[in-house]
Amino acid sequence: MARDTSKMSGVQKAAILFITLGPEASAAIIKKFPENEIQKITYEIANITSVKSEQRQEILNEFIEINKAKDYIIEGGIEYAKNLLGKALGQQRAKEILDKVTEATQQYRPFAIARKADAHQLMNVISSEHPQTIALILCYLQADKAGQVLSALPEDVQAEVAFRIATMSNTSPMVVKEIEKVLDSKLSSVVRSDMTVIGGLQTLVDLLNQVDRTTEKNITESLERESPELAEKVRESMFIFEDIITLDDVSIQRVLREVEAKELALALKGCSEEVANAIFRNQSKRAAAALKEDMEFLGPVRLMDVEKAQQKIVAVIRRLDEAGEIVISRGGEDAIII
What we know:
single chain, two-stranded antiparallel sheet, 19 helices, 69% helix
């Protein structure tokens, strides 16, 4: 029975790739692998009895796509690679490929152990550190984990850390090594010998997309006071629930098809009249009336629950935007001509 290639391990895919390439081409590649990896791959090759042509082609295509992505990243960075791959393969496929490239390279990044640690454990370890130290560590974490840690920090520290993340650029490997020592050898990846480019606006945006709405609002308001120009750039790169009013009617209607009525009713509790009207006008009179009844029927609700519902809807909007089914306006960059 043929195995689904998406469920295969890297070793299994490598084995099929080498079988597909043939002994001569494979020999030139596999000799560059570490000895332990060679053993795993050759063992897998020995245990493969048959491979369907579709599997071979799929794995070969994946190999080619991932290597193209690596070349594009080297040439112009992640955004450059994302744009080129998106045009050639579509945004969703481009994201999948870049995720695989990122996953393959993350094991070589500093703070590898921190990336595997529980967010609560990390919070206990770094909460008393200087905001600059916390900012540096969060830059190396997955966005969702960094968001959890940031959300757990005191509000004044959140704002300070967020500002330092957004304005961070190059960090000396020596500084990273010192921070690893402060964490008492719990973080043990090898630091590259050259300057490491981390942080920046996109890192902060990715992080803010993972935190709760209260944290997000606190940070953006603090950034507004500290650096209005930076706060404006962050807002231009993000999409929050209130930004639904910036979507065209067709996009709002597409979003509503993905959202459950109960979730929408909860999300609209306490929102501005402008946002509510944007939703109501894109529903039939009957659906709008039913939604208003649902909102009244809910009665008093917890702010936490409302924000959670709003985040779910924002996640739907961002997913549809990435899939190219709707367009989120981000200034002149996404101007549309009809």
